[in-house]
Amino acid sequence: KYRPRPSQCFQCFRFGHIASQCHSKAVCGTCAGPHPTSECRCPNAKPCKSGKQCPHIVPRCALRGCGGKHSATAAECPVRQILFRRIEDELSASGSFFAAMQSEH
């Protein structure tokens, strides 16, 4: 059965809204630094020119309460998993995705 997923903001990486509605400062979804993800740069003195994810950037989760060694959008994030489980439980109980999301704010 299809279960909708909550929207995740790509500015602050919290759930329940999108970047165009966000009033928080930008945080990097890759390293959790105080910059937009698009501005995350190689920390080496002689930066690599890899077209892919820079291997020198240490991932750090930007989700409140996590800080794990993964990006803020990683499926393996324990904070994300707990949130999704809570929403799933609320959705099962209420039958309403809207009600489930409201319980998270």
Automatic annotation (TrEMBL):
GO terms for molecular function: nucleic acid binding; zinc ion binding. Residues 9-22 form the CCHC-type domain. InterPro entries: Znf_CCHC. Keywords: Metal-binding, Zinc, Zinc-finger. It comes from the Eukaryota. This is CCHC-type domain-containing protein. It comes from Favolaschia claudopus. The lineage of its organism: Eukaryota, Fungi, Dikarya, Basidiomycota, Agaricomycotina.
